[in-house]
Design a protein that fits this description.
The structure is a homodimer of 218-residue chains.
Chain A: E1 4-8, H1 17-25, E2 31-35, H2 44-52, E3 56-62, H3 70-79, H4 84-87, E4 91-98, H5 115-118, H6 120-128, E5 132-133, E6 137-140, H7 147-162, H8 169-186, H9 191-217
Parallel strand pairs in A: 1-2, 1-3, 3-4, 4-5, 4-6
Helix pairs in contact in A: 8-9
Chain lengths: 218, 218
Amino acid sequence: MTKTLVIASHPNYQHSLSQRFFAESAKIPGVTLHFLDQLDQFILEDELALLADCDRLILQFPLYWYSVPAKMKAWIDTIWTEAKPLLTGKEIGFAISTGVAAKEFQLGGNEQISFNEILRPQLRMAQKYHMTVLPLIVLDQFMYKTETQKRRFVVDYQQLLTMPYPFSFDQKQQWFADRLNSLIEVKPQLAPLLTQLEENRELIQDLDEALHSLEESL
Amino acid sequence: MTKTLVIASHPNYQHSLSQRFFAESAKIPGVTLHFLDQLDQFILEDELALLADCDRLILQFPLYWYSVPAKMKAWIDTIWTEAKPLLTGKEIGFAISTGVAAKEFQLGGNEQISFNEILRPQLRMAQKYHMTVLPLIVLDQFMYKTETQKRRFVVDYQQLLTMPYPFSFDQKQQWFADRLNSLIEVKPQLAPLLTQLEENRELIQDLDEALHSLEESL
Protein backbone atom coordinates (compact mmCIF):
# COMPACT_ATOMS: atom_id res chain seq x y z
CA MET A 1 0.00 0.00 0.00
CA THR A 2 1.23 3.51 -0.86
CA LYS A 3 2.44 5.36 2.24
CA THR A 4 1.30 8.93 1.96
CA LEU A 5 2.46 11.90 4.01
CA VAL A 6 0.26 15.00 4.03
CA ILE A 7 2.07 18.19 5.02
CA ALA A 8 -0.68 20.67 5.88
CA SER A 9 -0.57 24.32 6.88
CA HIS A 10 -3.34 26.79 7.59
CA PRO A 11 -2.67 29.99 9.58
CA ASN A 12 -6.22 29.88 10.94
CA TYR A 13 -6.81 26.16 11.16
CA GLN A 14 -8.93 26.24 14.31
CA HIS A 15 -11.54 28.33 12.55
CA SER A 16 -11.25 26.88 9.09
CA LEU A 17 -14.08 24.60 7.97
CA SER A 18 -12.16 23.60 4.84
CA GLN A 19 -9.13 22.66 6.95
CA ARG A 20 -11.27 20.40 9.15
CA PHE A 21 -12.80 18.93 6.01
CA PHE A 22 -9.34 18.14 4.61
CA ALA A 23 -8.19 16.68 7.93
CA GLU A 24 -11.28 14.45 8.29
CA SER A 25 -11.00 13.25 4.69
CA ALA A 26 -7.38 12.20 5.27
CA LYS A 27 -8.27 9.78 8.09
CA ILE A 28 -7.79 6.67 5.95
CA PRO A 29 -5.32 3.76 6.07
CA GLY A 30 -1.85 4.52 4.76
CA VAL A 31 -2.11 8.28 5.26
CA THR A 32 -0.16 10.30 7.85
CA LEU A 33 -1.27 13.90 8.43
CA HIS A 34 1.43 16.28 9.63
CA PHE A 35 0.11 19.67 10.60
CA LEU A 36 2.77 22.39 10.61
CA ASP A 37 1.04 25.24 12.45
CA GLN A 38 1.01 23.32 15.73
CA LEU A 39 4.82 23.34 15.74
CA ASP A 40 6.75 26.34 17.02
CA GLN A 41 9.82 25.34 15.07
CA PHE A 42 10.89 22.41 12.96
CA ILE A 43 13.31 19.74 14.12
CA LEU A 44 15.08 18.79 10.93
CA GLU A 45 15.64 15.13 11.90
CA ASP A 46 11.96 14.61 12.75
CA GLU A 47 10.79 16.11 9.49
CA LEU A 48 13.29 14.11 7.46
CA ALA A 49 12.23 10.88 9.22
CA LEU A 50 8.64 11.50 8.09
CA LEU A 51 9.78 12.08 4.51
CA ALA A 52 12.02 8.99 4.52
CA ASP A 53 9.04 6.84 5.45
CA CYS A 54 6.63 8.00 2.70
CA ASP A 55 6.16 7.10 -0.97
CA ARG A 56 3.91 10.04 -1.75
CA LEU A 57 4.09 13.59 -0.43
CA ILE A 58 1.00 15.83 -0.48
CA LEU A 59 1.28 19.55 0.25
CA GLN A 60 -2.12 20.78 1.44
CA PHE A 61 -2.65 24.50 2.05
CA PRO A 62 -4.83 27.54 1.37
CA LEU A 63 -3.45 30.04 -1.13
CA TYR A 64 -2.06 33.10 0.63
CA TRP A 65 -1.15 35.89 -1.75
CA TYR A 66 -0.70 33.55 -4.70
CA SER A 67 1.63 31.20 -2.86
CA VAL A 68 2.07 28.84 0.08
CA PRO A 69 1.42 30.28 3.57
CA ALA A 70 4.52 31.55 5.44
CA LYS A 71 4.61 28.53 7.77
CA MET A 72 4.78 26.11 4.85
CA LYS A 73 7.49 28.26 3.23
CA ALA A 74 9.42 28.05 6.51
CA TRP A 75 9.10 24.25 6.35
CA ILE A 76 10.31 24.24 2.74
CA ASP A 77 13.23 26.56 3.52
CA THR A 78 14.20 24.36 6.47
CA ILE A 79 13.98 20.89 4.97
CA TRP A 80 13.88 20.87 1.17
CA THR A 81 17.63 21.01 0.55
CA GLU A 82 18.36 18.21 3.04
CA ALA A 83 15.40 16.17 1.80
CA LYS A 84 16.87 15.62 -1.65
CA PRO A 85 17.96 11.96 -1.25
CA LEU A 86 14.71 11.14 0.60
CA LEU A 87 12.39 12.60 -2.03
CA THR A 88 14.14 11.90 -5.31
CA GLY A 89 11.87 9.93 -7.62
CA LYS A 90 8.89 9.89 -5.23
CA GLU A 91 5.39 11.21 -5.95
CA ILE A 92 4.13 14.68 -5.01
CA GLY A 93 0.67 16.21 -5.11
CA PHE A 94 -0.83 19.58 -4.26
CA ALA A 95 -4.22 20.06 -2.58
CA ILE A 96 -5.00 23.75 -2.36
CA SER A 97 -7.97 25.74 -1.14
CA THR A 98 -9.09 29.27 -1.88
CA GLY A 99 -11.95 31.52 -0.88
CA VAL A 100 -12.14 32.83 -4.44
CA ALA A 101 -14.01 30.92 -7.18
CA ALA A 102 -11.62 28.75 -9.23
CA LYS A 103 -12.92 30.30 -12.48
CA GLU A 104 -11.39 33.67 -11.48
CA PHE A 105 -7.89 32.18 -11.81
CA GLN A 106 -7.57 32.62 -15.57
CA LEU A 107 -7.25 35.28 -18.26
CA GLY A 108 -10.15 37.69 -17.85
CA GLY A 109 -10.98 36.41 -14.38
CA ASN A 110 -10.59 38.64 -11.33
CA GLU A 111 -7.29 37.00 -10.37
CA GLN A 112 -5.85 36.79 -13.94
CA ILE A 113 -3.14 34.37 -12.80
CA SER A 114 -3.63 30.58 -13.22
CA PHE A 115 -3.00 27.86 -10.62
CA ASN A 116 -0.19 26.59 -12.85
CA GLU A 117 1.51 29.98 -12.70
CA ILE A 118 0.94 30.23 -8.95
CA LEU A 119 2.44 26.80 -8.29
CA ARG A 120 5.32 27.17 -10.75
CA PRO A 121 7.98 27.52 -7.98
CA GLN A 122 6.65 24.42 -6.17
CA LEU A 123 6.48 22.49 -9.44
CA ARG A 124 10.11 23.40 -10.10
CA MET A 125 11.08 22.22 -6.59
CA ALA A 126 9.50 18.86 -7.41
CA GLN A 127 11.03 18.60 -10.88
CA LYS A 128 14.46 19.30 -9.44
CA TYR A 129 14.14 16.03 -7.49
CA HIS A 130 12.64 14.12 -10.45
CA MET A 131 9.36 13.68 -8.59
CA THR A 132 6.18 12.51 -10.31
CA VAL A 133 3.62 15.31 -10.05
CA LEU A 134 0.05 14.10 -9.42
CA PRO A 135 -3.04 15.91 -10.74
CA LEU A 136 -3.75 19.18 -8.90
CA ILE A 137 -6.77 19.38 -6.58
CA VAL A 138 -8.47 22.71 -5.81
CA LEU A 139 -11.14 23.21 -3.16
CA ASP A 140 -12.65 26.61 -3.88
CA GLN A 141 -15.31 28.40 -1.83
CA PHE A 142 -15.94 25.48 0.50
CA MET A 143 -18.79 27.28 2.28
CA TYR A 144 -20.89 27.41 -0.88
CA LYS A 145 -20.50 23.71 -1.76
CA THR A 146 -23.53 21.39 -1.70
CA GLU A 147 -23.34 18.08 0.17
CA THR A 148 -22.99 16.24 -3.16
CA GLN A 149 -20.11 18.47 -4.24
CA LYS A 150 -18.40 17.92 -0.89
CA ARG A 151 -18.76 14.14 -1.16
CA ARG A 152 -17.34 14.24 -4.67
CA PHE A 153 -14.40 16.29 -3.44
CA VAL A 154 -13.69 13.79 -0.65
CA VAL A 155 -13.40 11.10 -3.34
CA ASP A 156 -11.06 13.27 -5.44
CA TYR A 157 -8.92 14.05 -2.42
CA GLN A 158 -8.78 10.46 -1.15
CA GLN A 159 -7.81 9.31 -4.65
CA LEU A 160 -5.00 11.87 -4.64
CA LEU A 161 -3.91 10.43 -1.29
CA THR A 162 -4.06 6.72 -2.07
CA MET A 163 -4.77 5.79 -5.71
CA PRO A 164 -1.83 4.31 -7.66
CA TYR A 165 -0.50 6.59 -10.38
CA PRO A 166 -1.32 7.15 -13.26
CA PHE A 167 -4.92 8.05 -12.45
CA SER A 168 -6.51 6.14 -15.36
CA PHE A 169 -10.15 5.13 -15.71
CA ASP A 170 -9.21 1.52 -14.88
CA GLN A 171 -7.35 2.67 -11.81
CA LYS A 172 -10.39 4.62 -10.61
CA GLN A 173 -12.68 1.60 -11.09
CA GLN A 174 -10.27 -0.55 -9.10
CA TRP A 175 -10.00 2.10 -6.38
CA PHE A 176 -13.79 2.18 -5.96
CA ALA A 177 -13.99 -1.63 -5.93
CA ASP A 178 -11.32 -1.80 -3.21
CA ARG A 179 -13.06 0.79 -1.09
CA LEU A 180 -16.43 -0.93 -1.55
CA ASN A 181 -14.89 -4.26 -0.53
CA SER A 182 -13.65 -2.75 2.75
CA LEU A 183 -17.08 -1.23 3.36
CA ILE A 184 -18.87 -4.54 2.71
CA GLU A 185 -16.93 -6.11 5.56
CA VAL A 186 -18.74 -3.66 7.85
CA LYS A 187 -22.00 -3.32 5.93
CA PRO A 188 -22.75 -6.58 4.06
CA GLN A 189 -25.97 -5.08 2.65
CA LEU A 190 -23.76 -3.06 0.26
CA ALA A 191 -22.66 -6.23 -1.58
CA PRO A 192 -25.07 -5.71 -4.52
CA LEU A 193 -23.32 -2.39 -5.25
CA LEU A 194 -20.06 -4.23 -5.81
CA THR A 195 -21.76 -6.71 -8.18
CA GLN A 196 -23.17 -3.73 -10.05
CA LEU A 197 -19.76 -2.08 -10.24
CA GLU A 198 -18.12 -5.28 -11.49
CA GLU A 199 -20.84 -5.76 -14.12
CA ASN A 200 -20.36 -2.17 -15.29
CA ARG A 201 -16.64 -2.70 -15.49
CA GLU A 202 -17.07 -5.86 -17.59
CA LEU A 203 -19.56 -4.10 -19.83
CA ILE A 204 -17.09 -1.25 -20.38
CA GLN A 205 -14.28 -3.72 -21.10
CA ASP A 206 -16.51 -5.50 -23.65
CA LEU A 207 -17.38 -2.20 -25.29
CA ASP A 208 -13.73 -1.22 -25.33
CA GLU A 209 -12.74 -4.51 -27.01
CA ALA A 210 -15.56 -4.20 -29.54
CA LEU A 211 -14.38 -0.70 -30.37
CA HIS A 212 -10.82 -1.95 -30.92
CA SER A 213 -11.92 -4.79 -33.28
CA LEU A 214 -14.03 -2.28 -35.16
CA GLU A 215 -11.05 0.06 -35.56
CA GLU A 216 -8.85 -2.82 -36.75
CA SER A 217 -11.39 -3.93 -39.35
CA LEU A 218 -11.66 -0.43 -40.84
CA MET B 1 12.55 63.60 -3.62
CA THR B 2 11.18 60.07 -3.92
CA LYS B 3 10.78 58.43 -0.50
CA THR B 4 11.86 54.81 -0.83
CA LEU B 5 11.26 52.00 1.63
CA VAL B 6 13.42 48.88 1.28
CA ILE B 7 11.94 45.76 2.88
CA ALA B 8 14.83 43.34 3.19
CA SER B 9 15.00 39.75 4.39
CA HIS B 10 17.87 37.31 4.55
CA PRO B 11 17.76 34.23 6.83
CA ASN B 12 21.53 34.40 7.23
CA TYR B 13 22.10 38.14 7.08
CA GLN B 14 24.96 38.25 9.58
CA HIS B 15 27.06 36.02 7.37
CA SER B 16 25.90 37.24 3.99
CA LEU B 17 28.34 39.41 2.05
CA SER B 18 25.70 40.22 -0.56
CA GLN B 19 23.29 41.32 2.20
CA ARG B 20 25.90 43.70 3.64
CA PHE B 21 26.58 44.97 0.13
CA PHE B 22 22.87 45.69 -0.41
CA ALA B 23 22.59 47.36 3.00
CA GLU B 24 25.64 49.58 2.44
CA SER B 25 24.47 50.56 -1.04
CA ALA B 26 21.12 51.67 0.37
CA LYS B 27 22.66 54.24 2.73
CA ILE B 28 21.65 57.23 0.59
CA PRO B 29 19.27 60.16 1.16
CA GLY B 30 15.57 59.36 0.78
CA VAL B 31 15.98 55.64 1.44
CA THR B 32 14.75 53.80 4.57
CA LEU B 33 15.99 50.24 5.06
CA HIS B 34 13.69 47.96 7.06
CA PHE B 35 15.25 44.63 7.87
CA LEU B 36 12.70 41.93 8.72
CA ASP B 37 14.86 39.20 10.23
CA GLN B 38 15.68 41.32 13.28
CA LEU B 39 12.01 41.32 14.26
CA ASP B 40 10.48 38.42 16.17
CA GLN B 41 7.03 39.33 14.99
CA PHE B 42 5.44 42.14 13.04
CA ILE B 43 3.36 44.88 14.61
CA LEU B 44 0.84 45.65 11.91
CA GLU B 45 0.53 49.36 12.77
CA ASP B 46 4.30 49.91 12.63
CA GLU B 47 4.62 48.19 9.27
CA LEU B 48 1.68 50.09 7.82
CA ALA B 49 3.13 53.42 9.06
CA LEU B 50 6.30 52.71 7.09
CA LEU B 51 4.31 51.91 3.96
CA ALA B 52 2.13 55.00 4.35
CA ASP B 53 5.23 57.20 4.36
CA CYS B 54 6.86 55.85 1.16
CA ASP B 55 6.39 56.51 -2.55
CA ARG B 56 8.41 53.52 -3.69
CA LEU B 57 8.58 50.05 -2.16
CA ILE B 58 11.57 47.79 -2.84
CA LEU B 59 11.51 44.12 -1.83
CA GLN B 60 15.10 42.93 -1.46
CA PHE B 61 15.80 39.26 -0.78
CA PRO B 62 17.75 36.16 -1.80
CA LEU B 63 15.80 33.52 -3.71
CA TYR B 64 14.93 30.58 -1.48
CA TRP B 65 13.45 27.67 -3.38
CA TYR B 66 12.26 29.83 -6.28
CA SER B 67 10.45 32.31 -4.04
CA VAL B 68 10.76 34.85 -1.22
CA PRO B 69 12.28 33.60 2.08
CA ALA B 70 9.77 32.48 4.73
CA LYS B 71 10.23 35.64 6.82
CA MET B 72 9.32 37.88 3.89
CA LYS B 73 6.32 35.66 3.14
CA ALA B 74 5.28 36.08 6.79
CA TRP B 75 5.51 39.86 6.32
CA ILE B 76 3.44 39.67 3.14
CA ASP B 77 0.82 37.42 4.76
CA THR B 78 0.61 39.82 7.74
CA ILE B 79 0.42 43.20 6.04
CA TRP B 80 -0.45 42.98 2.32
CA THR B 81 -4.23 42.83 2.69
CA GLU B 82 -4.32 45.78 5.10
CA ALA B 83 -1.78 47.72 3.04
CA LYS B 84 -4.07 48.07 0.03
CA PRO B 85 -5.06 51.75 0.47
CA LEU B 86 -1.46 52.66 1.39
CA LEU B 87 0.14 51.02 -1.66
CA THR B 88 -2.40 51.55 -4.43
CA GLY B 89 -0.79 53.35 -7.36
CA LYS B 90 2.69 53.50 -5.80
CA GLU B 91 5.91 52.11 -7.29
CA ILE B 92 7.38 48.70 -6.50
CA GLY B 93 10.71 47.13 -7.37
CA PHE B 94 12.41 43.80 -6.72
CA ALA B 95 16.11 43.40 -5.93
CA ILE B 96 16.95 39.72 -5.69
CA SER B 97 20.14 37.78 -5.14
CA THR B 98 21.07 34.21 -5.91
CA GLY B 99 24.11 32.00 -5.55
CA VAL B 100 23.39 30.48 -8.96
CA ALA B 101 24.50 32.19 -12.18
CA ALA B 102 21.66 34.26 -13.70
CA LYS B 103 22.09 32.50 -17.06
CA GLU B 104 20.89 29.22 -15.50
CA PHE B 105 17.41 30.71 -15.03
CA GLN B 106 16.13 30.05 -18.54
CA LEU B 107 15.15 27.24 -20.88
CA GLY B 108 18.07 24.84 -21.08
CA GLY B 109 19.77 26.32 -18.02
CA ASN B 110 20.18 24.27 -14.85
CA GLU B 111 17.22 25.99 -13.20
CA GLN B 112 14.94 26.00 -16.29
CA ILE B 113 12.57 28.52 -14.64
CA SER B 114 12.93 32.27 -15.41
CA PHE B 115 12.96 35.14 -12.89
CA ASN B 116 9.67 36.30 -14.41
CA GLU B 117 8.09 32.95 -13.64
CA ILE B 118 9.58 32.92 -10.14
CA LEU B 119 8.27 36.39 -9.34
CA ARG B 120 4.86 35.91 -10.97
CA PRO B 121 3.01 35.72 -7.60
CA GLN B 122 4.72 38.91 -6.37
CA LEU B 123 4.03 40.65 -9.69
CA ARG B 124 0.37 39.72 -9.36
CA MET B 125 0.32 41.12 -5.80
CA ALA B 126 1.62 44.41 -7.19
CA GLN B 127 -0.73 44.48 -10.17
CA LYS B 128 -3.70 43.90 -7.88
CA TYR B 129 -2.92 47.28 -6.27
CA HIS B 130 -2.23 49.00 -9.62
CA MET B 131 1.41 49.53 -8.69
CA THR B 132 4.07 50.56 -11.21
CA VAL B 133 6.62 47.76 -11.45
CA LEU B 134 10.22 48.96 -11.81
CA PRO B 135 12.90 47.04 -13.75
CA LEU B 136 14.07 43.90 -11.95
CA ILE B 137 17.56 43.81 -10.47
CA VAL B 138 19.42 40.51 -9.98
CA LEU B 139 22.67 40.15 -8.05
CA ASP B 140 23.99 36.70 -8.92
CA GLN B 141 27.09 35.01 -7.51
CA PHE B 142 28.26 38.06 -5.59
CA MET B 143 31.47 36.35 -4.47
CA TYR B 144 32.71 36.03 -8.05
CA LYS B 145 32.10 39.67 -9.01
CA THR B 146 35.01 41.95 -9.87
CA GLU B 147 35.29 45.37 -8.20
CA THR B 148 34.12 47.00 -11.45
CA GLN B 149 31.08 44.74 -11.63
CA LYS B 150 30.26 45.50 -8.00
CA ARG B 151 30.52 49.25 -8.56
CA ARG B 152 28.26 48.94 -11.60
CA PHE B 153 25.72 46.99 -9.55
CA VAL B 154 25.73 49.67 -6.83
CA VAL B 155 24.76 52.19 -9.50
CA ASP B 156 21.98 49.93 -10.84
CA TYR B 157 20.66 49.36 -7.32
CA GLN B 158 20.83 53.00 -6.28
CA GLN B 159 19.02 53.97 -9.47
CA LEU B 160 16.31 51.43 -8.61
CA LEU B 161 16.07 53.08 -5.21
CA THR B 162 16.01 56.73 -6.21
CA MET B 163 15.77 57.43 -9.96
CA PRO B 164 12.44 58.83 -11.19
CA TYR B 165 10.46 56.42 -13.34
CA PRO B 166 10.55 55.65 -16.31
CA PHE B 167 14.24 54.77 -16.37
CA SER B 168 15.05 56.50 -19.69
CA PHE B 169 18.49 57.45 -20.99
CA ASP B 170 17.77 61.11 -20.17
CA GLN B 171 16.74 60.14 -16.67
CA LYS B 172 19.99 58.25 -16.15
CA GLN B 173 22.08 61.21 -17.37
CA GLN B 174 20.23 63.51 -15.01
CA TRP B 175 20.66 61.04 -12.14
CA PHE B 176 24.44 60.94 -12.66
CA ALA B 177 24.62 64.73 -12.91
CA ASP B 178 22.71 65.11 -9.64
CA ARG B 179 24.95 62.61 -7.87
CA LEU B 180 28.06 64.27 -9.24
CA ASN B 181 26.81 67.67 -8.08
CA SER B 182 26.45 66.36 -4.52
CA LEU B 183 29.93 64.85 -4.67
CA ILE B 184 31.47 68.10 -5.95
CA GLU B 185 30.29 69.86 -2.80
CA VAL B 186 32.63 67.53 -0.88
CA LYS B 187 35.32 67.07 -3.53
CA PRO B 188 35.56 70.20 -5.73
CA GLN B 189 38.34 68.59 -7.80
CA LEU B 190 35.61 66.45 -9.44
CA ALA B 191 34.08 69.52 -11.15
CA PRO B 192 35.67 68.79 -14.57
CA LEU B 193 33.82 65.46 -14.63
CA LEU B 194 30.50 67.29 -14.46
CA THR B 195 31.55 69.60 -17.31
CA GLN B 196 32.48 66.50 -19.31
CA LEU B 197 29.11 64.86 -18.54
CA GLU B 198 27.21 68.01 -19.54
CA GLU B 199 29.19 68.29 -22.80
CA ASN B 200 28.46 64.66 -23.59
CA ARG B 201 24.80 65.19 -22.88
CA GLU B 202 24.68 68.23 -25.20
CA LEU B 203 26.52 66.32 -27.90
CA ILE B 204 24.02 63.46 -27.65
CA GLN B 205 21.11 65.89 -27.77
CA ASP B 206 22.61 67.53 -30.91
CA LEU B 207 23.05 64.10 -32.52
CA ASP B 208 19.50 63.17 -31.58
CA GLU B 209 18.12 66.37 -33.14
CA ALA B 210 20.22 65.88 -36.27
CA LEU B 211 18.87 62.34 -36.57
CA HIS B 212 15.30 63.61 -36.26
CA SER B 213 15.75 66.30 -38.98
CA LEU B 214 17.33 63.69 -41.20
CA GLU B 215 14.36 61.34 -40.70
CA GLU B 216 11.91 64.14 -41.47
CA SER B 217 13.74 65.12 -44.68
CA LEU B 218 13.63 61.53 -45.99
